[in-house]
Amino acid sequence: MSPTQTNRPTRVLCVASGGGHWVQLLRLRPAFDGCDVAYVCVRRSYAVDVPGSRFFAVNDATRWNKLALVALAARIAWIIVRFGPDVVVSTGAAPGYFALRIGRMFGAKTVWIDSIANVETMSKSGTIVRRHADLWLTQWPHLAQEGGPRFVGAVL
Predict the structure, then answer these.
(1) Has this prediction a pTM greater than 0.85?
(2) Which positions ≥6 away from 128 have C-beta within 8 Å?
């Protein structure tokens, strides 16, 4: 059933790690007007940036800490089951990777927007998640290529 058939707004789960990833995600907020939006980030203090929206904090993790990655994946899965997003959007990194992978398993459309900091190449997370993203974007025109990632502009 589509969101319009259930008479509810589209549910969008926005996911980012901290710092620049979070800032870029916040700059996308106008695109989600009229949607039921929840945010996920590794810093609980960032909840003040999205007043009136649901906010979930998750642990930070890198590929060098496998146990932390398992905990992160489990927390993301719990959030997805609880919130039930129609769309998952991420600007990176590890939390976004898991959100796209798990969100897609639950039928959500997925959007990956690689960080503008990745000037020379796509990020490690972005490269790995590309086949799980319904829309895979770069913020640098010279990184766009046939078959993705696509360039449609930058958020900074």
Answers:
(1) yes
(2) 97
